[in-house]
Amino acid sequence: MTQQFAERATNVAPTGARNADLSDLVRILEDQSRRKLDVIAPACALRLCEGNVHVQGVESQITEDGVTDVDGIYRPTAVADEGIADKLRIPLAYLRRMRADNVTLLDENVNAWLRQEPDRRFMLRAFRAESGPGVPGEGVARALLSDSYKLMDNFDMLLAALDGVRQSGHPTRVTGCDLTDRRMHVRVESEAVAVQARALLRGYRSPFDGRSGDELPMISAGFVITNSEVGSGAYTITPRAVIQVCRNGLTMTRDVMRAVHLGGKQDEGVVSWSGQTQRKTLELITSKTADAVRTFLSREYVEAKVREMEAAAGTTLAEPTKTIEHITKTLNIATDAKDMILAHFVRGGQMTAGGVMQAVTSTAQTLTDADHAAALEALALPALTAAAQHG
Record's superkingdom (predicted)? Predict the structure, then answer.
């Protein structure tokens, strides 16, 4: 959960994770699944009051588990605020300023735009409030989305993807999991598929413990499973190479396999997948995952990628500081990350374009924000290309 709402919603918001193991991720996702509430509601059933989303007039759903009450108060996360801004075409910077400085004005703006189209429908993804003595009766508004958004939840997608990995027949292990308000990231590696990359790692030292790439010039094959439940991206499997000497990982986004969250319009009320619809979707995810894994974990694929990297990595940098300044500006990398990349570049000891690539990926390992870390890993190959061209 974003820091802005962490303290206020402690009792209702399950926690995220950074570099967790698979069992911890599963435990968190199971907890989240029990507390999820997804509802299609018209604009006339939604309003903001003191900055919180109030839902009123949506029919409860009766299931074998009891009555699901929808009406209530939900504290929006930063992701939900982004959805409100997007759906109502309110500039996000302005919405954030109102939330920080004038919540009354925020309520007036949002409610006025909701009244403009009272029959327009949205999907609200939320966590239910905890019940019990002394527990605030507030849930968490996770996202405001289109009413045609297709639910592809993290827990279901993870199980389907891991089944696809199993069906591929490749020996793998999950090396780390991240869960944020926006996305789930699961990193998978196969040390059984490892290739030598002596030219790529010549002269490189791990910035973490000083081990030499000349002594361990190996790259393992892997991939990252990513999904978003709140409209922050498709379900994807992205190939990932892992430098064994330092555990740096870099993703090859050009070859990503994705499945988007697009579906048909849904009826108003609590959203529940039919068993057949869910089964068909997850079977497709399992099948596509198995096919992707067979490709990404083939020795031929990894060797071809290493050759591509080595072709540019040996370029010597005449003025490394200026090159890194140019790259971070070109790729829109934040200033604080730029300073870290330069420090990692110096510690890595490779005064080449390949050294810049390594510095980008090792910096990504140190970031506490998992989404930022994943985004930086994805820039490693563009950084390599830009460094080689800049010289």
Answer: Bacteria
Q: Please spell the DSSP secondary structure of 274-339, one letter per residue.
A: -HHHHHHHHHHHHHHHHHHHHHHT-HHHHHHHHHHHHHHHTPBPSSHHHHHHHHHHHTT--HHHHH
Confidence check: pLDDT of 14 > 70: no
DSSP, collapsed to helix, strand or coil, labels residue 43 as: helix
Per-residue pLDDT of 49-68, as tens digits, reads: 999 999 998 877 655 556 67
Its sign, for the CA torsion 308, 311, 317, 318, is negative
Kindly give the residue spans of alpha helices, DSSP state H, lying in 123-274.
Answer: 154-168, 198-201
- Look at the block and give the residue holding tokens 């609200």: 124
Beta strands in the chain (DSSP E): 17-20, 36-42, 46-49, 52-55, 61-63, 66-68, 72-76, 121-127, 138-146, 173-179, 184-196, 218-227, 235-243, 248-251, 257-259, 269-270
- What is the model's pLDDT at position 344? 97
Q: Residue 214 corresponds to which tokens in the numbers above?
A: 């000349």
